[in-house]
Amino acid sequence: MTTLLNVENLVKNFGGLTAVSDVNMHLNDDELVALIGPNGAGKTTLFNLLTGVIVPSTGSITFRGTDGVIPLNGMKTYKIANLGMGRTFQNIRLFKELSVLDNVLIAMTAHYKENFIQSIFRSPKFYKTEAQIREEAIELLKIFDLQDDLDKQAKNLPYGIQRRLEIVRSLATKPKILFLDEPAAGMNPEETADLTRLIRQVQRDFHITVLLIEHDMSLVMNLASRIYVLDHGSLLAEGTPTEIQQNDAVIKAYLGEEE
Amino acid sequence: MTTLFQQLINGLSLGSIYALLALGYTMVYGIIKLINFAHGDIYMLGAFWGYYTINFWHFNFIFALLSAMVVCAAAGVIIEYFAYRPLRHAPRITALITAIGVSYFLENGMSYLYGADTRNFPQVIKQVNYNLWGVRVSNIQILILGTACLLMILLQLIIKKTKMGRAMRAVSVDPDAAELVGININRTISFTFALGSSMAGAAGVLIGLYYNSIDPLMGMTPGIKAFVAAVVGGIGSIPGASLGGFLIGILETAVQSVGLSAYKDAAVYLVLIIILLVLPAGIFGKNVKEKV
Amino acid sequence: MTLKANLKYNICWLILMVAGFYLMNTLILAGVIDSFLENMVVTIGINIMLAVGLNLIIGFAGQFSLGHAGFMAVGAYATAIIISKTPTAGALYLSIIVGVIIAIIAALIVGIPTLRLRGDYLAIATMGAAEIIRIIINNMKITNGPSGMFNIPQFATWPVVYIMVCVTTIIIVNFIHSRGGRAALAVREDEIAAESMGINIFKWKLAAFVLGAATAAVAGSMQASYLQTIAPNNFNIMESIAILIIVVLGGVGSITGSFVAAIILGVVDTALQNFGALRMVIYAVVLILIMIFKPSGIMGSTELSFKRLFNRKNKKVGAKS
């Protein structure tokens, strides 16, 4: 097992406020890790740091790509995404006015470089690639049972389906690591169970690493092989679900509140 | 040194006109996020009102100024009621096009009714030039600068100290929340238009006095310049609009005084672009980052 | 979508274009369209080119530009200067290319710094940039300064303009329906999400902006050579706004809408010719009323699509049988 993403002494200050303080973590190949913590613990901020949406104050993030270890600090979001980091958003950010299919096709743009001249003058190659990516997109949509909604506008989908589409969209970027920000938020227990199954299936079939933020403990304990607990911006604990469930500090800070 | 002060005085006089206009832009933008393209034409209405009342009704300066403010305030409220209110929830670009339509309507309506020719503004106050340490200052320049400053202070007081001013600030921050706490949104927006338009009306009368000539299309260029001033100052910010107005006025006269009058507008736009690149929300504007 | 599957629709479009050409030709030969009406048709064509290009920038890439007239001026003056010196048809085409290249360079110079701005700030910055272009032209010797250029040879006859309208529209529509176009749409919808999907948002904003500017330059070239006279004031803020009005009236994000609005405005403008000063008053009132009662424009964001027409027909046939 090798380390795919390594985070060392990561700090993010907003003015006088420290949102993330001295976080050390790592993600290995092919594993499913959960990031939990009370509201305002800095989980989404950490996601934004890892995906380059915001720039760390200090500390390092490195990614082991095909060309060796690359530092991600200060790298543009789209470049980080193209290295193989896909994500979803806590407050769903689909391309609302566009169709389900277009949402997925857009995520594949970076993988199919096109020649401006070819696309404007429509060479046979252009049509061939278009057909190919369309097929690929539909294959992905099938996994999440969305193949019948291809032409629907994303904004018209029910909430739970929108969350699924966001996952399909991020899968279409062919990620090595998938960051899921509260994928089960707002879902009923049945939908959550369904989603749990899908996440596990995707993680296995695509051999990707998944880091997920989630409040639903049943989902977390079911899925994750390791758990990081974040509280007030710093890591409180790290371990297997069983270890976390028995960790006094965690119980006190987090689980204790729920019982 | 004297030329420098001379240009500064000229720049401040012109700048105070821009500042008065910029206030209207900034207030309206602050409250309904609309670039009110017709604002420059309200200023033209103010100038024409001054022209007619002084010429035919023999108003004195103060009365012409005050009545122009009242008439323009009414015009602003009427325009908002008929043209902008129905579009409050429409795409913003639609409201912008409507504002352009209103602008065309006022410009061409005036041309159609009263002719498109340029008129001489009556010299209701006789120009007297003072010589202060080699700097030539006219009583009209002092009047313009004084009136503009007085109006700006008055506006600041209304916004900071009155209940209506508080409502304006609330609506510009969050209209839904303002409505929840019992603020009448429509009345507040009408009031904003009234305030902004009255400033434009005053500016119209003052510019007539300063430049002596008025025509139905006189509002177009100063309107755009004043909007630039509002953006430079940070749109939505009252002190920003005043500062921006003075800055643009001074810049324009400065470029003119070094013999580049053909490029004075280009200089204004260049400064605008540079300021926006350094401060994307203008000098006093708040740069709000989107939350992810 | 393979080449073959699209052949049917592409042939439909081709037939439509050729039919339009023949209709126009026949009407001119039959004397139905006189030089006055021909002028109207060509003006409509030029406005279509301008509006389609601006719609790409505003409606599809979501970048609010108010500087379209500046790029138009670049094309117009490139053509005016070149074909006044060497009055040949070949020089017209060379001048179009020169105009497009200069417009692309200008769009890069304007776009690279300003496309970082958002919404109205971008609009006001691009408006300023276009004014700077106009003022530079206004003060140059080769452009004959504020009085403009006259007696430009007329090589851009109506068929040339017609073909240019078709070519620029095809280029823009093909771009919109390519991967690049989809990336531009994503930028319009949600910049942060687009970036997180690996899309270089700045690149695609710039691509749309530059492509729009290039087609505006072609429109400028056509105007200079067809009308034979141009002046810097033809390319001021009001011209940029006039193009914006066509885009919004037709529907932001609908190329079909830009066509429809340009045609309607062109016809109405000609019909109101005799109303003198009242013409602009009526125009203003109509504009305000349309915006109030149809805020999304004539077409909204829908497009004329042969594919959809066929599909609908197939469905109806299927339902019957």
UniProtKB/TrEMBL annotation, chain A:
Keyword DNA-binding recorded: no
Family matches, as SMART domains: AAA (SM00382)
SUPFAM superfamilies given in the database record: P-loop containing nucleoside triphosphate hydrolases (SSF52540)
Transmembrane feature ranges: none
Keywords from the UniProt entry: ATP-binding, Nucleotide-binding, Transport
MF (Gene Ontology): ATP binding; ATP hydrolysis activity; L-isoleucine transmembrane transporter activity; L-phenylalanine transmembrane transporter activity; L-valine transmembrane transporter activity
The protein's name in its UniProt record: Branched-chain amino acid ABC transporter ATP-binding protein
Automatic annotation (TrEMBL), chain B:
Annotated membrane topology: Multi-pass membrane protein
Record Pfam families: BPD_transp_2
UniProt keyword list: Amino-acid transport, Cell inner membrane, Cell membrane, Membrane, Transmembrane, Transmembrane helix, Transport
Primary location: membrane
Location in the cell: Cell membrane
UniProt xrefs under SUPFAM superfamilies: ABC transporter involved in vitamin B12 uptake, BtuC (SSF81345)
A GO cellular component annotation in the UniProt record: plasma membrane
Record keyword Ubl conjugation present: no
GO biological process, one term: D-alanine transmembrane transport
GO MF annotation list: L-isoleucine transmembrane transporter activity; L-leucine transmembrane transporter activity; L-phenylalanine transmembrane transporter activity; L-valine transmembrane transporter activity
Protein name: Branched-chain amino acid ABC transporter permease protein
Lineage: Bacteria, Bacillati, Bacillota, Bacilli, Lactobacillales
From TrEMBL, chain C:
GO molecular function: branched-chain amino acid transmembrane transporter activity
Transmembrane segments: 12-33, 39-58, 65-84, 90-112, 157-176, 241-268, 280-299
Membrane topology: Multi-pass membrane protein
Keywords of this entry: Cell membrane, Membrane, Transmembrane, Transmembrane helix
Any one of the GO CC terms: plasma membrane
Subcellular location: Cell membrane
Name this protein carries in UniProt: Branched-chain amino acid ABC transporter permease protein
Encoding gene, per UniProt annotation: livM
